[in-house]
Design goal:
The complex is a heterodimer of chains A (450) and B (232). Chain A is α+β, with helices and mostly antiparallel strands and 450 residues long. Chain A is 52% helix and 18% strand. Chain A contains 14 helices and ten strands. In chain A, α2 (18-55) packs antiparallel against α10 (299-342), α2 (18-55) crosses α12 (357-399) and α10 (299-342) packs parallel to α13. The longest helix of chain A is centred in the C-terminal third of the chain and has 44 residues, at 299-342. The two termini of chain A are 30 Å apart. Chain B has one domain: P-loop containing nucleotide triphosphate hydrolases (Rossmann fold, 3-Layer(aba) Sandwich). In chain B, a hairpin with a 2-residue loop joins β10 (216-221) and β11 (224-230). The longest helix of chain B has 18 residues, at 179-196. Chain B is globular, with a radius of gyration of 17 Å. The relative contact order of chain B is 0.19. The chains are: A alpha+beta (450), B alpha/beta (232). At the A-B interface, α1, α11, α12 and α14 of A face α2 and α3 of B. Bound molecules: adenosine-5'-triphosphate and magnesium ion.
Chain lengths: 450, 232
């Protein structure tokens, strides 16, 4: 039998039972549609995350911070008696920055400085985290700007504010904020209040040992989003140059923990970010930092973790999507078995006029494949349409919260072809039992006159 | 044994075992049919006529004994080879016509060519030719429900002939037809036998019909050949 005849035969046989065929195919369409949406969502998330990482060149980043456990005085002497450890201990200060910049592959080193402040703009005020970022950071794409530009020197009284913070300040158009003045109010510990007399009143809650300082800045840029400004993926609301920051009185605070620890750690920055020229420098730089007694953080280390998480997510989405496929498969088997019972005599006739068992099997397999193919194509179309609709809805909801338009679903070519191929494969599997059963029909029995 | 025989059977036996009961449907049947003959097979109901027919047609396999067609041992063929044998060597027609009810006359006649891998255009062309031969060309686009019993049997005959077999096996082809139509159908078979050298084996319990057209008539009873008579 010719391939063309198998296909024509399948279509005409299925066409004779239009309703049943379309219902069965519908099952496959829904199954494949659900699976495609699930997988494309998984792909979309993965693509968005890795694209963002790549865009922000986060794979070239190493975060360095003090190892709290081996901090001076805390390290258990009996375990680490060697002198070298103590001798090589360094502090994350400007000297460290200078030294580390001399290392091969280190493009930039910038201190991790973050402190809370009251941000006042027009008549609104909000509480936010201020991040100190050197002007040179602009060239690394760590910060994407929606409007304006980066400050050009480390000394100017300019800042960059995040789009979402602006929105909280009721500014809808980022452009309008450029050139405007903004005030930062920082908290400082009022040392004057740290005398026993005043402390008593502090403890009675009459007066807090904090003072407020006010500084005026000019908004030069509005950030769309920021990458990892430090070892932790924290998005800061405002970025200011280090020179300006130095003149400010402030409480250094990346976490509440820092606040309590600050007395011991005051001697250095809480963390330093290193920008490497290529990922291959990550390992040697990390090794050196660890030798110096620091802890390091590199996103590359997390990559396998992240990949495993994605794999897990993909598997989960696939499993959920498979429910529909399993149901659709049962539908195909059911339809085919029904069809065999109805066409019992016809199968007997086919055999009597010279069809081999293989011919009979193939006829049924081809019918399954036609259902599988149609189910795959329309399922892909359904999955795609549903994803597009969900994407539009999600984006229109999130746009109100300042999120840029994002494709939450991704349809790589392998997913599209894979969906159709998978649909046909599943249908083929569904056809195995019916096909074997059809081939086993005994023509003598089937043709015996009723 | 006749060395010029087209079909030969040797101690052909078929035993059906359903559960514990064994039914001997055919027992030690040895026959020889020369090319171009019209053989009639008759016998009471349950005597094993259809069983013999199914064995000769390669639809079933014997429990023991041999079938040879053109000296080729049909009883030893595997399933694939049997399919090819059915496709090209024999044509079969049945009491209940056994044509596909959803196909037109033309599609039914062309059906065997599908498995022979003949392209569609040729299939239609040849089917039309054969339909012409049995006088059904004008009814080619009708479905079985729109045809009389005799016409349906003619469609079945045309289908049996489309692959140009040497042997035509007919199992009670007139069983569902009135006497006049019956006689027309058998007439057609006899003409095919006479004009085209087609070897015909026809089963019927109407002995008179066989006597009218067949060269030889074999009588079966309880699966055994009880008499072989030469008529002409
Ligand atoms: N599949 C089967 N299983 C068991 N017994 C069978 C089977 N097929 C036929 N038989 C038995 O074999 C015997 C011969 O049957 P067969 O159909 O050959 O008779 P027949 O001569 O064609 O009869 P009829 O004239 O009624 O068609 C019968 O007794 C029948 O019951
Ligand atoms: Mg019979």
């Amino acid at each position: 039998m010719r391939l063309r005849d198998y296909i024509e035969q399948s279509f005409s046989n299925l066409w004779k039972k239009k309703l049943r065929t379309s219902l069965t195919t519908c099952g496959v369409v829904i199954g494949i549609g659900a699976l495609v949406s699930m997988m494309s969502f998984g792909e979309g998330v993965q693509k968005n995350v890795t694209d963002t990482f790549r865009e922000l060149e986060l794979f070239n980043y190493v975060g360095v911070f003090p190892d709290a456990e081996s901090a001076p005085g805390e390290s258990p002497e009996e375990n680490q008696p060697d002198e070298r450890e103590v001798a090589q201990r360094r502090i994350l200060n400007d000297e460290f920055l200078e030294e580390v910049m001399k290392m091969e592959g280190v493009e930039a080193a910038f201190p991790e400085l973050r402190f809370p402040a009251q941000i006042k703009f027009k008549d609104k005020d909000e509480f936010g985290l201020i991040q100190v970022l050197p002007a040179q950071v602009r060239q690394f794409g760590l910060v994407k700007l929606r409007a304006g530009d980066f400050y050009t020197s480390d000394e100017e009284n300019s800042l960059i504010i995040s789009d979402s913070m602006l929105r909280r300040m009721d500014v809808k158009e980022p452009e309008t904020a450029i050139g405007e003045e903004i005030e930062l109010h920082t908290l400082t510990v009022d040392s004057a209040l740290f005398n026993p007399a005043s402390l008593a009143s502090v403890l009675q809650g009459e007066k807090l040992p904090f003072a407020q300082e006010s500084y005026t800045f000019t908004i030069v840029g509005v950030a769309e989003r920021t990458g990892f400004g430090g070892p932790m993926p924290i998005r800061s609301d405002v970025m200011i140059p280090p020179g300006a920051a130095e003149n400010m009185k402030k409480l250094l605070l990346t976490s509440l923990w820092d606040f309590f620890e600050s007395s011991e750690q005051n001697e250095g920055y809480s963390a330093v970010g290193l920008r490497l020229s290529a990922p291959r420098y990550i390992e040697p730089v990390k090794a050196k930092m660890e030798e110096w007694g620091f802890k390091t953080f590199a996103l590359v280390d997390q990559l396998t973790e992240i990949k495993r998480a994605f794999l897990f997510m993909d598997m989960f989405l696939f499993a959920v999507g498979m429910i529909g496929i399993v149901v659709a498969t049962l539908g195909i088997i059911n339809t085919m078995v029904m069809s065999i019972l109805e066409r019992y005599k016809e199968i007997g006739i086919m055999k009597a006029i010279g069809a081999s068992d293989g011919d009979v099997k193939k006829i049924f397999f081809f019918e399954c494949e036609v259902i599988g193919f149609l189910g795959g194509v329309f399922g892909l179309a359904l999955g795609w349409s549903v994803s597009m609709i969900i994407n539009q809805i999600a984006n229109s909801i999130l746009a109100g919260q300042g999120a840029p338009f994002t494709d939450y679903f991704s349809f790589p070519w392998w997913l599209c072809l894979g969906a159709i191929a998978f649909s046909m494969l599943v249908s083929l599997a569904a056809g195995i039992y019916p096909a074997i059963r059809a081939a086993r029909v005994d023509p003598v029995v089937a043709l015996r006159h009723d | 044994m006749d060395s010029t025989a087209l079909i030969e059977t040797e101690n052909l036996t078929k035993i059906y075992s359903t559960g514990k009961v064994e039914v001997v449907a055919l027992k030690d049947v040895s026959l020889s049919v020369s090319e171009g003959k019209f053989l009639g097979v008759t016998g009471p109901s349950g005597s094993g006529k259809s069983t013999l027919m199914n064995l000769l047609g390669g639809l079933d396999t014997p429990s023991s004994g041999k079938i040879k067609v053109e000296a080729r041992p049909i009883s030893e063929l595997n399933k694939e080879e049997l399919a090819l044998y059915r496709r090209f060597q024999v044509g079969m027609i049945f009491q209940s016509f056994n044509i596909v009810s959803s196909y037109t006359a033309l599609e039914n006649v062309a059906f065997p060519l599908l498995f022979a891998g003949v392209p569609k255009k040729q299939r239609e062309h040849r089917a039309k030719e054969v339909l012409e031969k049995v006088g059904l060309y004008p009814r080619r686009d009708h479905r079985p429900a729109e045809l009389s019993g005799g016409e349906q049997q003619r469609v079945a005959i045309a289908r049996a002939l489309i692959n140009r077999p040497k042997i035509l096996l007919a199992d009670e082809p007139t069983g569902n037809l009135d006497s006049q139509t019956s006689s027309q159908i058998v007439q057609t078979l006899a003409e095919l036998n006479r004009n085209q050298g087609l070897t015909v084996i026809m089963i019927s319990h109407e002995e008179s019909l066989l006597r009218q057209f067949a060269h030889d008539v074999v009588h079966l009873r309880d699966g055994e050949v009880i008499e072989q008579e030469n008529i002409r």
